[in-house]
Amino acid sequence: MVSQYYTISVQELKSDSRKKEITLPRQMLMFLAKKYFHWTLEKIGDYFGGKNHASVIYAIENVEKKLKIDDDARHDYQVFSDRLEK
Question: How many CB atoms lie within 10 A of CB 28?
Answer without folding.
Answer: 24
